[in-house]
Design brief:
The chain has a domain of about 190 residues: Winged helix-like DNA-binding domain superfamily/Winged helix DNA-binding domain (Arc Repressor Mutant, subunit A, Orthogonal Bundle), CATH 1.10.10. It starts with about 30 loop residues before the first strand and ends with a helix. A hairpin with a 2-residue loop joins β4 and β5. The chain is globular and about 90 Å long. It contains 29 helices and five strands. By secondary structure, it is mainly alpha-helical. Helices cover about 60% and strands about 0% of the residues.
């Protein structure tokens, strides 16, 4: 990580807090402490400093949270242990000694520590405020509250880029940490709103729309978030959308939170309807007022990394935001690589942290370009790159190069997982487990492995407050149980995923849940009713921003219904089979009674991809073999489906069912015996 520099010469004071004694002596201290994300320490060159186990990082974090004040030893003991052992005080002293050695490797023996001072019966962290990201963030926010808009936008845009995730992300939720996280999260939200207001006051709100949409969705109870979003929509020339956003916000605040009056929304609505001139102020002096927005920043690093971070937040809202987020992330990574700085490129790539539950990429060319950039970056960084950053890049390779049988992609995911486990970093491990999940489709018959990955993801994410990955774990469990034919167990995980999605505003989960319910209906429901359910799901998917999942899924679902009821393939006009056409082409020809065309299509059949639809497409091939009495294709289908004995064909999708694999294998065996 690049060296963190103070915003202004010297240190900004912190009124109301006890000053850090001895701070002048520590001006030359080279370490940097980060807690706006996982607890990390780096040296002046950005190299990570090993500070030990989670307990030791928790002690360091507790001292950071004290803001320079001394924390008595009994308080540290109570904060670090729910039921302190008799040796707890001695253990804390040992941890302090080890942290001092890590933070001051050049300190002579018996010399007093400049980093952690003993104060009475307690300890105080004496690292300068501008060397601790949380303290610098607080100081930056305080310093600009009365500044003009341009200065606010510039300073807070830079300060917000320091956030790497939830504060103290790698620590368990203990007694002292919950209020500290909540305090910092509130300051973060205030900074987002203050910066947005400054940009809007300058008349430059249009580029903020995607960022504010994600922010308002994540904070539906914050009236001001909706005011800012609607104002930005108005500045983007979208008056109708701005008014609709205000109406939706007013209804949501009333229905969900019982707020019958939202004066800020009412005032803005009146101003928009009368085109109040203050909503779009005249441009000001470009040289005097520099803005930091999603695409305009003082430095390449901040701008590109912010683009990737904002893209990740927007992607979780689905729809057009997901498509735009993926495009923005790819553009940021490509521009970073052109800048010639591999560390910048790596951090831009790693800043996007969105779970993946489907093995077909939405844009193969874009994913291929991102994978190529990531692999080149890994090569340029060489062996000296930090393990955490290397693990994130390797996981990106595993996640983006999915649906293939390329061994190097699976090896990248495996190495990412090994590094993450050595680091004991839950965020990195969650990403690596996601990569392992999508790479598990390289070979059939690995449902048990996916089950284990899902179980670990749910437990890990729940323990470390990683809700998007907890949702992912439940969705994988839905797929696993659907593949095994355990519909009730799958339903329980659907319920768990939807409950989390409601709290954390993840609309894509509800679309996938509806698809599962259509599949469940397909097991025993009326074919016409099932078809209607699948058409409703297809309509939802059309706006979900997941073309890799949406393409061809409705015709394939309708085909699954017809095959299970011994009917010909659907040939109605307008059905777009998308990437699945090669495998259904023989059945479409048979539905037209064109036997010769069906045999020609069989001769051109490709191998199904190594993804969620592998067994579904082999089930289609099996039906083709039986209807054409094609012995060679029957042998191939039997060999492909044998590793999946005991499962449901298409069940791994949690969307489709072609019936039990055993039934298909028995039918193939009877055909081959004849």
């Amino acid at each position: 990580m690049r060296e963190l520099l103070p915003l202004t010469p010297g240190r900004i004071g912190q009124p109301g807090q006890q000053p850090i004694s001895g701070a002048d002596d520590n001006e030359g201290m080279e370490i940097r402490v980060e807690v706006l994300g996982p607890v990390r320490v780096t040296d002046a060159d950005g190299r990570p400093v090993a500070v030990g186990s989670r307990r030791r990082r928790e002690l360091l974090g507790r001292l950071v949270a004290a803001g320079g004040r001394a924390v008595p030893l009994p308080v540290l003991v109570d904060d670090l242990w729910e039921d302190p052992p008799s040796t707890a005080a001695g253990t804390v002293r040992t941890f302090v000694a080890e942290l001092r050695r890590a933070l001051e490797p050049g300190r002579p023996p018996r010399a007093e520590s400049r980093a952690i001072e003993t104060v009475g019966a307690g300890y105080a962290l004496r690292v300068p405020r501008d060397h601790v990201d949380a303290h610098r963030f607080e100081d930056a926010l305080r310093s600009v509250r009365a500044e003009p808009g341009g200065q606010v936008a510039h300073v807070l845009g830079e300060a917000l880029s320091w956030w790497q995730g939830e504060p103290y992300a790698d620590l368990d939720a203990v007694r002292w940490l919950a209020p500290e996280r909540a305090r910092l999260a509130e300051l973060h939200d205030q900074a987002v709103e203050l910066r947005a207001r400054a940009v809007l006051d300058l008349g430059r709100g249009a580029p903020l729309v995607p960022e504010l949409e994600a922010f308002a969705t994540a904070h539906p109870w914050r009236e001001h978030a909706w005011v800012l979003l609607s104002h930005a929509l108005y500045q983007a020339g979208r008056q109708v959308d701005a008014l609709a956003s205000l109406r939706d916000a007013r209804a949501a605040l009333l229905d969900r939170f019982g707020l019958s009056s939202a004066h800020g929304l009412d005032h803005l609505e009146r101003d928009i309807l009368r085109h109040a001139p203050h909503l779009v102020p005249a441009p000001r002096d470009e040289d005097r007022l520099r803005l930091l927005t999603r695409t305009e920043a003082t430095g390449t690093y901040t701008r590109l990394r912010s683009m990737s971070t904002v893209a990740g937040a927007a992607a979780l809202t689905g729809g057009s935001n997901l498509v735009l987020a993926q495009e923005q992330r790819a553009a940021a990574a490509a521009e970073a690589e052109r800048a010639g700085d591999p560390v910048l490129t790596a951090r831009v790539i790693a800043a996007y942290d969105v779970p993946t539950v489907w093995t077909r990429v939405d844009d193969p060319a874009r994913s291929a370009a991102l994978v190529a950039t990531t692999r080149r970056t890994l090569q340029r960084l060489g062996p000296g790159v930090s393990p955490a950053l290397r693990a994130r890049l390797l996981a990106t390779v595993g996640l983006e190069h999915r649906g293939s049988r390329d061994r190097w992609a699976a090896e990248a995911a495996a190495e990412a997982e090994r590094l993450a486990r050595d680091l004991h970093d839950p965020d990195v491990l969650a990403r690596a487990l996601n990569a392992r999940f999508v790479q598990s489709f390289q070979r059939p018959g690995r449902t048990g492995e996916r089950d284990a990955v899902a179980g670990e993801l749910v437990a890990l994410a729940a323990r470390h407050d990683l809700p998007t990955f907890e949702i992912l774990g439940h969705l994988i469990k839905v797929q696993v149980h659907s593949a095994r034919g355990d519909t009730e167990a799958a339903r329980r995980h659907v319920v768990a995923a939807e409950e989390l999605a409601t709290v954390h505003e993840s609309p894509l989960v509800h679309v996938l849940a509806a698809a599962f319910r259509a599949r469940r209906l397909a097991e025993s429901g009326d074919p016409a009713e099932v078809a209607r359910a699948y058409r409703a799901v297809a309509a939802d998917l059309a706006g979900a921003g997941m073309p890799g999942l949406e393409a061809g899924v409705l015709p394939l679902a309708l085909l699954s219904i017809r095959l299970r009821h011994h009917r010909p393939a659907p040939t109605e006009p307008g059905l777009d089979w998308g990437p699945h056409r090669p495998w259904v082409q023989p059945l479409l020809a048979l539905a037209r009674d064109d036997l010769a065309a069906a045999r020609r299509a069989v001769a051109a059949l490709p191998e199904p991809p190594a993804d969620h639809l592998y067994d579904a497409l082999w089930a289609v091939n099996a039906h083709t073999a039986l209807r054409l009495r094609d012995e060679q294709l029957a042998v191939r289908a039997r060999a492909a489906l044998l590793p999946l004995r005991g499962e449901v064909a298409g069940g791994a999708t949690a969307l489709l069912t072609f019936g039990p694999v055993d039934d298909i294998l028995d039918a193939l065996a009877r055909h081959l015996d004849r």
